[in-house]
């Protein structure tokens, strides 16, 4: 009886802590994502909760692909202040063809990206990545092309969107980030 009571108490405590953890996690960060060209998955809430994020849909064969360099500059500038760039490669606009290995080479070797890059995913429709489904729900907008940028507050709310043509190092984008830090 005593053992049964202890097991029941442990189970209730475990369930309660799981519920509290998931209840405190913003919807945009619920779930796991696989890293680009890897079998490793990360728990988004554990990794990014309480940080200001710039979520970017990327493509390795696009005219905007050189923005990886500026995104990395932005990441390096603000990473110690609770900011992270998170890239989500997508072939929705047919600009990220080939293997994930090729996309990873372009990101990591050609442009020196150190910020987290997730596995290739769809941005909209029934197979949309859950992060982008939540972005669309919150912001009422879906990316119209590659390198759309979504600024997400520490509370997990989309607070600003920037089109592909907005340079990651533009004063407009930097000012928006600085206001969140």
UniProtKB/TrEMBL annotation:
Question: Which CDD domains does the record match to this protein?
Answer: GSH_Peroxidase
SUPFAM superfamilies, per the entry: Thioredoxin-like
What are its GO biological-process terms? cellular response to oxidative stress
Q: Is Lipid metabolism set as a keyword in this record?
A: no
Query: What molecular functions are annotated in GO for this chain?
Result: peroxidase activity
**Entry annotated with the keyword rRNA-binding:** no
- Endpoints of the signal sequence: 1-22
Pfam families, alphabetized: GSHPx
Question: Where does the record place the catalytic residues?
Answer: 62
Judging by the UniProt lineage, the source's domain of life is: Bacteria
| Keywords linked to the UniProt accession | Oxidoreductase, Peroxidase, Signal
What InterPro entries has UniProt attached to this entry?
Glutathione_peroxidase, GPX_AS, Thioredoxin-like_sf, Thioredoxin_domain
Domain (Thioredoxin): residue spans on this chain: 12-181
* Family under the similarity heading: Belongs to the glutathione peroxidase family.
Q: What is this protein called?
A: Glutathione peroxidase
Record organism: Vibrio coralliirubri
Classification lineage? Bacteria, Pseudomonadati, Pseudomonadota, Gammaproteobacteria, Vibrionales
């Amino acid at each position: 009886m005593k053992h049964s009571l202890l097991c029941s108490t442990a189970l209730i405590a475990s369930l309660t802590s799981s519920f509290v953890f998931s209840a405190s996690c913003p919807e945009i960060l619920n779930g796991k994502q696989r890293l680009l060209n890897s079998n490793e998955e990360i728990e988004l809430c554990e990794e990014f909760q309480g940080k200001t994020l710039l979520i970017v849909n990327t493509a390795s064969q696009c005219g905007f692909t050189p923005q990886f360099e500026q995104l990395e500059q932005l990441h390096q500038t603000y990473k110690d202040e609770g900011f992270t760039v998170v890239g989500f490669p997508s072939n929705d606009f047919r600009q990220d063809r080939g293997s994930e290995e090729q996309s990873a080479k372009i990101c990591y070797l050609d442009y020196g990206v150190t910020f987290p890059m997730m596995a290739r995913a769809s941005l909209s429709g029934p197979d949309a990545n859950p992060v982008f489904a939540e972005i669309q729900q919150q912001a009422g907008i879906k990316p119209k092309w590659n390198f759309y940028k979504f600024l997400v507050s520490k509370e997990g709310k989309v607070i600003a969107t920037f089109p592909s043509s907005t340079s990651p190092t533009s004063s407009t984008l930097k000012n928006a980030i600085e206001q969140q830090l």
